[in-house]
Amino acid sequence: MVGLASRSFWIFILVILLLFFVSTVTFVHSASATDLKAEEIVLRVRPIAVIDYSLGPGTKFDVNVTLNMTSINATGLHGFTLELTYDAGLLECQAVREGDLLQTFGNTSWSTKSWNITTVNSVGNVYASVNLTSPGVVAEGNGSLIGLTFRVLERGETSLHIHDVSLYDSNGTLLPYETLDGYFNNKFLIDVAMPLTLLAVMSATVFLNRKTEDKLKTTLEEKELGVRDTVLLVGLMVIMISSIVVFRGLVAPLMILFMFSYSMLLFIFSYLFSKERWYVAIIPPATFVLLYVFLRNNFVWTDYLVSIYGVVFAVLITLYVGSLFTWKTTLIFACLLTAADIILVLVTGTMVQAANTTFISLSLPVMVAVPVVPLIGTSLGFLPIALGIGDFFFAGLLATQTFKKYGKTMLIVSMISMTASFFLFETFLLTFWKIGFPGTLMIICGWLPPVAVKWMKDRTRKVKKE
What we know:
By secondary structure, the protein is α+β, with helices and mostly antiparallel strands. The protein folds into 2 domains: 2-29 and 189-454, no CATH class; 40-176, Immunoglobulin-like (Sandwich), CATH 2.60.40.680. The chain contains 13 helices and 17 strands. The protein has helices spanning 2-7, 9-19, 193-219, 227-246, 251-272, 278-281, 283-295, 299-322, 327-347, 350-362, 389-406, 408-432, 439-465, and strands spanning 24-27, 41-46, 49-51, 60-69, 79-87, 91-98, 108-117, 123-132, 143-152, 157-168, 178-180, 182-185, 367-371, 377-378, 381-382, 384-388, 437-438. A 6-stranded mixed β-sheet has the order 3-12-10-5-8-7, with no helix packed on it. α3 packs across α11, α9 (327-347) runs antiparallel to α13 and α12 (408-432) runs antiparallel to α13.
């Protein structure tokens, strides 16, 4: 078993590199192609969610009601009528425009009406009717049916509800459809779910590390990363991230590498803690591979299992690789990684691009997504926020090394500080920031202050004794 783990050592170092392709915090604002439902025609409000604190009273924003034909066999569209309702105490519809879908296929006739009912129910309503004037002509494909401009009256939240829809072909036959409502929110937002998830993963990592460290050190033959190894590790991460963006055709090999590495990780831990019974150890990796192969496009995987496995792998990789770090190499690694993360996320955008173009499309367990709490409900479900499992590894590594260096009290202080820092940064992101943000920066800003204070106190005490 020692030989097996030794040969797999650099495989897991490579996994660490790959994990940080998605070392960012991402807030989901719009639906993707995978959100399409079973019907051949889907009507939706675009963007599916407008969540923007800067849209205060007096500001304006635009949305579109779009139509997607999700099958090449879908019957063409000759015309439609629809209505859209919203909270008239919060929004006022100031303009309705004909979309481009039907216009592309010929002349159209259309009528529209909008009104606000500012009574007890405060209901606003938009009515639109458009059809092609030439008999027998139909529109095909995807496009906008109507565009709307809203003026914001107050702060709050409201759905943009599509209803009373009629879609018909050139014979007047009604067409089946599904709808995805829009959502507007300009309130100040907070979230407690992800900070608590981060705290739970750090706690689990430290607890399990105390029980597994001796056995893992034996397995790894007492290997440790030196200063040069740590600098090289961060440098390789930057090179690999850039390479993934340049060579996008590596998606398939990347998936195979991840599946192999994750399976090996599961096998090694299962082997070590099943008293080296290989026939037992093979069950967890086999289950993981089968679930991914058969359920990767199913909501059970994408909504639940991918995040559960993300947490599991974050803990396991921290336990496995974390034992290779010393306090000195941890400090160097933390500083270099945070600097690289800031550059790749905020300056070049390479990290975010790599995540969006490769890992997310493959449904690999490289991010953990949880619903924002307090809950924000949209037509696609509760709004989630996602954090790369590289950030969970980073936080777990810092917590584990802090415990080894300074003990239990300092561990608790540092974990609370990291959680609080993450919460404050995340509150800023939810309210004001609409793109990816480096999670390492959020974490290290909470870890450094208490550690620095502890170091200064110890140094002062040491000087006094001398």
